[in-house]
Design a protein that fits this description.
Blueprint (H helix, E strand, L loop, with lengths): L4 H15 L4 H20 L10 H13 L9 H20 L26 H11 L5 H16 L3 H5 L6 E2 L6 E5 L5 E5 L2 H13 L1 H5 L19 H14 L10 H12 L4 H8 L4 H4 L7 H11 L6
Antiparallel strand pairs: 1-2, 2-3
Helix pairs in contact: 1-2, 2-4, 3-4, 5-6, 5-10, 6-8, 6-11
C-alpha cells in the first residue's frame, strides 16, 4: 500500500502540472514545500506516506515555523501555504490508493499573529470630539460626553451605554466611573478633566431635557425618547462624528478604546495598569498594544540607555 516518498512526490507534482493544469509558479511552490516536508519525514525515519500520522505533520509545521528542521523559519502565512500543499498531497495519495488514511485531515494552518489594533492620533481624537459637539441642544452635549467617556476611560461602547447616573463620580479631586465589563465584572476607572467637564455640561444642560420624554430611567446616556441609548445608537454617534471630522475610514467601534490604550502606553504607562483600566482578564491580551516599530525602539534606546550615546 505504501509508496516511496520520492516516487509519491513525483507522481503528485505530475498530477498538479498535467491534470490540474496549475501554473509553473504554483507548482514550484508546492514542490518546494513538499520537498522540505518529505526531507523532514525521511529525517524522522519514515520512508513512505502510509507511515505518517497527524502528530508528525503537526511537528513538521512547528519545525518550519522555528527553523528547527534546519531550513528557513516560515511566517504563519508561509507555513499555512505548506499545510495546504500537505493536505493536497495526502488527499491525492488516499484517493489513488497509495495510502490507507489521510493523516493531514485534522491539521490546521497556524494562526496568523494578532495585528496591532488601529488607533488614531491624539490630534484626530481632538477633531473627533470637536465634531461630536457641533450644533446646539442636548444631543451634541450628550454626544461629546459619550465620546469623552469612551476615550477618557477606555470603556467599551456597551459599557458606556450601560452606565447609570449613580455610576459616575464627578468629584474634581478624584473623578471616576464604575464600569461593568464582560461577565458583569466591575472596575472603577479614573476620569480626567475633559471627560468630567463634558459630563457636567451634559448632566446640567442636556440630560434633563432628554429625560422629559421618558419615564425616569436611571441611565446616564439617553436618546431623544428619554430612554437608555442603545449600543447601535452610540455606534451611530461615533460614525457621524467621524464623518464630520473626516475620519470615517479610520474609525471602528473599538477605535477610541484602542487609542486610549495605545496613547497611555506611549506616554509611559505600565502595561499592567493599562490591563486593569481596560478590564482585561490577562495581561497577554493587553500586550498586543505594546507592539512598537523599529524606529520607536531606536528612539527609546537612544533616549534611555546609559551608554547609547557613548
Amino acid at each position: 500500500m505504501g509508496a516511496a516518498l520520492a516516487d509519491a512526490l513525483a507522481e503528485y507534482v505530475a498530477h498538479l502540472e498535467v491534470e490540474r493544469g496549475l501554473s509553473e509558479h504554483t507548482v514550484a511552490a508546492y514542490r518546494r514545500d513538499l520537498t522540505r516536508y518529505s526531507a523532514y519525514l525521511r529525517a524522522s525515519g519514515l520512508a513512505d506516506l502510509d507511515a505518517v500520522d497527524e502528530a508528525r505533520i503537526g511537528s513538521f509545521v512547528e519545525a518550519v515555523r522555528t527553523g528547527a528542521d534546519g531550513g528557513r523559519p516560515l511566517s504563519a502565512a508561509s507555513a499555512g501555504r505548506a499545510v495546504v500543499a500537505i493536505h493536497g498531497w495526502h488527499r491525492f495519495a488516499l484517493r489513488e490508493g497509495r495510502t490507507s488514511a489521510d493523516p493531514a485531515a485534522g491539521v490546521r494552518p497556524p494562526a496568523a499573529p494578532k495585528r496591532l489594533p488601529k488607533a488614531i492620533s491624539t490630534e484626530d481624537v481632538e477633531h473627533l470630539l470637536e465634531a461630536a459637539s457641533a450644533g446646539d441642544g442636548p444631543v451634541p452635549l450628550r454626544d461629546r460626553a459619550l465620546l469623552e467617556v469612551l476615550y477618557g476611560t477606555g470603556a467599551r461602547i456597551s459599557e458606556a451605554v450601560g452606565l447609570d447616573v449613580d455610576d459616575v463620580d464627578l468629584d474634581r479631586g478624584g473623578a471616576s466611573v464604575r464600569l461593568f465589563g464582560k461577565g458583569r465584572k466591575e472596575r472603577v476607572v479614573p476620569m480626567g478633566r475633559y471627560a468630567v467637564e463634558a459630563l457636567e455640561a451634559y448632566l446640567v444642560r442636556g440630560r434633563p431635557v432628554l429625560s422629559r420624554a421618558g419615564h425616569g430611567t436611571p441611565a446616564l446616556f439617553l436618546n431623544t425618547r428619554g430612554e437608555r441609548l442603545s449600543r447601535q445608537s452610540a455606534w451611530a454617534v461615533l460614525q457621524a462624528s467621524a464623518r464630520r471630522a473626516g475620519l470615517a475610514a479610520h474609525v471602528s467601534p473599538h477605535t477610541l478604546r484602542h487609542s486610549f490604550a495605545t496613547h497611555l502606553l506611549a506616554g509611559g504607562a505600565d502595561v499592567r495598569v493599562v490591563q486593569e483600566l481596560l478590564g482585561h482578564a490577562s495581561v497577554t491580551t493587553t500586550q498586543i498594544y505594546t507592539l512598537v516599530t523599529p524606529q520607536t525602539m531606536r528612539e527609546v534606546y537612544a533616549a534611555s540607555h546609559p551608554r547609547a550615546l557613548a
